[in-house]
Amino acid sequence: MTGAKFLKEKTRSLYKGDGPRSLVSTSLQSASNNLSVCWTIEEWIQWRQSASEIKRYVLSNLDILLEQFIEQLESKGVKVICAKDADEANKKILEIINQHNAKLAVKGKSMVSEEIDLNHFLESNGITSCETDLGEFIVQLSGTRPSHIVTPALHLSASEIGKLFEEKLGESNSAGHEELTKIARRQLRSKFISSEIGFSGVNFGIAETGTLCICENEGNIGLSTSSPKVHIAMMGIEKLLPRLVDLPLFLNMLARMGTGQRLTSYTHFVNGPAAGTELYVVLVDNGRTRALADSEFSEILKCIRCGLCMNNCPVFRQVGGWAYGWIYPGPLGIVLTSEMLGIETAWELPFACSLCGACGSICPVKIDLNHLILKQRRNVIEKNTHGRKLTETIMWKIFSFGARHQYVFKTMMFFVRLGIRIAPYLPFKFGKLKAWMDGRELPKRNK
Ligand code: SF4
């Protein structure tokens, strides 16, 4: 089955009966009624409410909106490609590149491309895909992957980047921000000029008009999408907005929550291919319809990828983005990864959470992240996805008993304290205790 057919049938089948349509709580009109009064930061509560309701509407009508969006795009001469998974998306993108006999592509930041691991796939097929977002450029040079969805090289200091540039590009070592930016600019300029393919993500796709809206701060997306003759835009199927009038609210929310700006430095509106160029839009499912079918967790698809939940997450701030094992870190990653890859694969993630609730209270589209995480924990335990061992069950039973009886609890704590004191002096460590202690230093005893 082709990707387009799969996507159509899959989304249509989801909406038989009540399905995700029951998600919508108000009409689109009443959701956007708030918009006319909400142009100062004091109206934050209304912004969130409107944004949440509009995204709910999108999820409730994704089948209709997708068809409308595709029709609009095709009427403008855009070639639309639908891919049900990463494999299909990569293969179809490779076909386009081969049709144009291209060997070099420049790429703006796109989380979908990270999801499908596009760069590695192209590299294994002899095509160079050069990241042009500064953070992504640094991460690609270092041979690692982004640690944050908005600021990919957040984990590196300026001096580490200077050393990387010296080692990989033969540039003089510098820790000056301006100098580092100039080096990247110099390195990338020739790539923009000579590349035949330009990749980008899409922040919002407007169903009503078939417009692609792409936000950025560096100007690299403008160059990546206008300099090469072929532009390939990759987009998750949930990134739709019904109407153009809904967009200002989301542009405002995305920039403020993502980077603390009123608006990103550049906002591109792509309405079809420019003369003499070709435009492809690759609509990627890759687990999204699976998430949409799960009524308990489908609201995670409201996410606009602002990154605010991870900035506010005390666990993310300690462990960084890589610890979450896949592309999406932080509270968003916990829920989305479990939905897209399946809780059987990502069963550990819901436990990487302190349940402080900071994420749910600030999410601009009102995703109830902390409660979704709690429900995922319940699912992991109920489904016993990780083959819970008898020892673990006994341990939790003991803890549960102790937590309900204060004298037992105090005695347990006495032994824990004793254990912490003697553990550093143990000549041997075993099993999980060894793995745990290898990565940690226990506090020294106070003299
Ligand atoms: S879940 Fe909410 S806060 Fe987190 S990235 Fe998505 S929209 Fe932003």
Number of domains: 3
How many helices in DSSP terms? 21
In CATH, the homologous superfamily of the largest domain goes by the name: NagB/RpiA/CoA transferase-like
User: Which CATH architecture of the largest domain would you pick?
Assistant: 3-Layer(aba) Sandwich
> What is the highest CATH level, the class of the largest domain?
Alpha Beta
The proportion of residues forming helix, as a percent range, comes to 40-55%
- Termini separation comes to 71 Å
Number of strands: 10
Strand order of the largest sheet: 1-10-7-4-2-3
Low-confidence stretches: none
Report the structural category.
alpha/beta
Content of β-strand: 5-15%
Task: Describe the global form.
Answer: globular
Task: Report the bound ligands by name, code or SMILES.
Answer: iron/sulfur cluster
Main beta sheet, described? 6 strands, parallel
Structure description:
The strands form two sheets. Strands 1-10-7-4-2-3 form a six-stranded parallel beta sheet, with helices on both faces. Strands 8-5-6-9 form a four-stranded mixed beta sheet. Helices cover about 50% and strands about 10% of the residues. The chain contains 21 helices and ten strands. The chain starts with a helix and ends in a 9-residue tail after the last helix. It folds into three domains: about 290 residues, 3-Layer(aba) Sandwich (Rossmann fold); about 80 residues, no CATH class; about 45 residues, no CATH class. Iron/sulfur cluster binds next to α14.
